[in-house]
DNA sequence: CCCCACATCTCGGAGACCTA
DNA sequence: TAGGTCTCCGAGATGTGGGG
């Protein structure tokens, strides 16, 4: 059975001459795309692509089929545009406010499908601290925002949950501990510390204060979580950040649990004044479909 | 309408092959 | 030898159709 994604994949492979990048474009994994193409070729009973050394090329028969696939997708886009216009979704604007780490880690993957689905709706990104985001939602500057630990009464779409971890250089004595054994705030009080805020009031400094610990050796304060991780790698000190913001390929750094554990969750909420607006409804409807279908696989941020 | 069995799809991991 | 690309395989998720 072939679905719309299969046809989009076919056209993407023809455009990009690369199965991996075509898979990314249509939101599949590379292996899934490879199998889907093989399946389509089997279904149609003819090879559509030639697998060459560094790329894939369209066969003569494939050219004919892909041309028809383009026509078909074009017709589908026209149908969708008509449906959007009919529902008042042909044009509009959503101002989306978020703190920086969500902008860089979560929102690109999340909003791509919406942009493709509703090209007439403009998405305006507003970057600020978590305090600013809340204020923009209240005064109507933004229609939608990413909130930390959003209250259930705001019916948030939960985007993820992340554990706060301690990063230490591999050469540091604490690096000999197991991850689970972890490190307490008290043990960090006199360590050279790299304070990262991520643009949030919820950060290592506020969390240590809540734990009743004063960090005596703050060497540097940075805005970006990833920068703090790099500074740890350089041996400037230790840092405490949400695990999901730690670069996955960071060598030379050990990650330990913070004891007792602290978690942060974050979700997308609507501004009170925007509830009921059609573009916002369309965005939430699409995202709820995504997250309800796979709540256990919500992306990390 | 619900449940169950079967078919299909998608994913991650492993491995083969090739190039720089 | 490392890195990039593709295929194959097993497992889990999802969709579909039939029976009660």
From TrEMBL:
Signal peptide: none annotated. Keywords: DNA-binding, Transcription, Transcription regulation. Residues 2-59 form the HTH lysR-type domain. CDD domains: PBP2_LTTR_substrate (cd05466). One of its GO terms (cellular component) is cytosol. One of its GO terms (molecular function) is DNA binding. InterPro entries: HTH-type_LysR_regulators (IPR050950), LysR_HTH_N (IPR000847), LysR_subst-bd (IPR005119), WH-like_DNA-bd_sf (IPR036388), WH_DNA-bd_sf (IPR036390). Belongs to the LysR transcriptional regulatory family. This is DNA-binding transcriptional LysR family regulator. It comes from Paludibacterium purpuratum. The lineage of its organism: Bacteria, Pseudomonadati, Pseudomonadota, Betaproteobacteria, Neisseriales.
């Amino acid at each position: 059975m072939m679905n719309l994604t299969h046809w989009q994949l076919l056209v993407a492979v023809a455009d990009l001459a690369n199965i991996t990048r075509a898979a990314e474009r249509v939101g599949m994994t590379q292996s899934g795309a490879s199998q889907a193409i093989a399946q389509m070729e089997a279904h149609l009973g003819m090879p559509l692509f030639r697998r060459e050394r560094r790329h894939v090329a369209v066969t003569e028969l494939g050219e004919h089929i892909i041309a028809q696939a383009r026509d078909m997708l074009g017709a589908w886009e026209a149908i969708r545009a008509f449906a959007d216009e009919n529902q008042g979704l042909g044009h509009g604007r959503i101002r989306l406010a978020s703190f920086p780490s969500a902008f860089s880690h979560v929102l690109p993957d999340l909003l791509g499908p919406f942009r493709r689905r509703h090209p007439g709706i403009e998405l305006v990104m507003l970057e600020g601290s978590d305090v600013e985001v809340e204020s923009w939602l209240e005064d109507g500057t933004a229609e939608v925002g990413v909130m930390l630990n959003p209250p259930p009464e705001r019916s948030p779409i939960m985007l993820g949950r992340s554990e706060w971890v301690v990063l230490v250089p591999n050469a540091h004595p604490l690096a000999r501990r197991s991850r689970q054994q972890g490190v307490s705030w008290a043990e960090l009080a006199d360590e050279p510390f790299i304070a990262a805020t991520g643009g949030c009031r919820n950060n290592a400094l506020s969390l240590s204060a809540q734990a009743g610990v004063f960090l005596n050796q703050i060497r540097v304060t940075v805005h970006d979580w990833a920068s703090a991780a790099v500074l740890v790698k350089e041996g400037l000190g230790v840092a405490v950040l949400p695990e999901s913001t730690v670069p996955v390929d960071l060598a030379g750094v050990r990650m330990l649990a913070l004891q007792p554990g602290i978690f942060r969750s974050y979700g997308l909420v609507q501004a009170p004044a925007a509830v009921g607006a059609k573009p916002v409804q369309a965005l939430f409807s699409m995202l709820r479909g995504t997250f309800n279908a796979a709540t256990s696989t919500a992306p990390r941020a």
